[in-house]
From TrEMBL:
This is Uncharacterized protein. Its main location: membrane. It is found in: Membrane. The chain crosses the membrane at residues 15-36, 48-66, 101-120, 221-242, 267-288, 300-318. InterPro entries: ZIP. It is a multi-pass membrane protein.
Length: 324
């Protein structure tokens, strides 16, 4: 129950206010933490952090986002409205074919989110020669950057700025996810905020290390990271706009997509889940698998960290459901 009251204190407003608050916490706090982080943080420590982050991110997907996406429409059209205010929903029954359509739509949304992230990653690699998620295992990047000859310096600078651009777009999608989650329900919003927060810390730390290695001063590296945070605010505003438009549409049109009670806005949560699955399983886990270590304990530490991340999300899920 303490977790719930803490989250209630952190997010006291309506969906719009809470999503902007969450974005502020996620953008500002990890960046402030950078001040206390040594730029030469060991890859093994970072990898433990990243495993914890992946666990919490996947925990959010499988314990919060997907159950919400599939359940929130099983109880009739009124629940959608009630969910926005965090109230218990009235149970109703949809036609059987409507349920099937909804499941297919939600599945399509999940695939859509995953595909968008894959497409962005693919295109970035094809046209820029850099992955949007190369930076988690920054130990490899450093080897490339050490003692670079002069003609390579431009290349390093380009990859650094590309990294910042990738960060900006990553934060943009986080912002959209944040808004969609808070509009879904206060509980979903809070858990997504927590998951993204834990994902952001190692993400910011590794990016910061790359910037320092590329010749940025501590101050300019922090400023660069703050600049990418603007993406999160833009994303949140886009998310709020999508949800508000969906509300307007819902108020005036009582029929949803393909004869279901779903609107386009309802596909944002499944798409978010798909995107998070891509980030965790394609963007991060392969790098964690490739990370070289001589320690026999390191892999166990990493696995335990991932499980702890998942358990944290489960704990929040149970606390929230008990609270409601």
């Amino acid at each position: 129950m303490q977790a719930t009251s803490a989250l209630a204190i952190l997010f006291p407003g309506n969906a719009m206010v809470n999503s902007l608050l969450a974005t502020s916490y996620i953008s500002i706090i990890p960046n402030l933490l950078l001040y206390f982080v040594p730029p030469n943080i060991s890859p093994s420590t970072l990898n433990v952090l990243v495993n914890f982050a992946v666990g919490s991110l996947l925990g959010d997907v499988f314990l919060h986002l997907l159950p919400h996406a599939f359940n929130s429409h099983d109880h009739g059209h009124d629940e959608k409205h009630d969910a926005h205010h965090g109230h218990d929903a009235h149970h109703g029954h949809d036609a059987h074919h409507g349920d099937e359509y909804k499941s297919v739509l939600i599945g399509t949304g999940i695939f859509g989110g995953l595909f968008i992230f894959y497409a962005a990653d693919k295109l970035m690699r094809a046209y820029c020669g850099k992955s949007g998620h190369d930076h988690h295992d920054h130990a490899h990047d450093h080897k490339k950057h050490d003692d670079v000859p002069d003609n390579k310096e431009k290349e390093v600078a380009a990859s650094t700025y590309l990294n910042l651009l990738a960060d900006f777009t990553h934060n943009l999608t986080d912002g959209i996810a944040m808004a969609a989650s808070f509009y879904a329900s206060p509980a979903i919003g809070a858990t997504t905020a927590v998951a993204v927060f834990f994902h952001e810390i190692p993400h910011e730390v590794s990016d910061y290390a790359i910037l320092i290695k590329s010749g940025f001063s501590k101050k300019s590296a922090m400023m660069a990271q703050f600049t990418t945070a603007i993406g999160a605010y833009i994303g949140t505003l886009i998310g709020i706009f999508i949800e508000e438009m969906a509300h307007q549409h819902e108020a005036h049109h009582h029929h949803g997509l393909f004869g279901t009670s779903m609107t386009w806005g309802d596909l944002v949560i499944p798409a978010t889940a798909g995107g998070f699955i891509y980030i965790a399983t394609v963007g991060v886990i392969p790098e964690l698998l490739e990370a070289k270590t001589t320690s026999k304990l390191q892999p166990l530490k990493e696995l335990v960290a991932m499980v702890i991340g998942m358990i944290l999300m489960a704990g929040i899920a149970f606390t929230e459901s008990h609270h409601h």
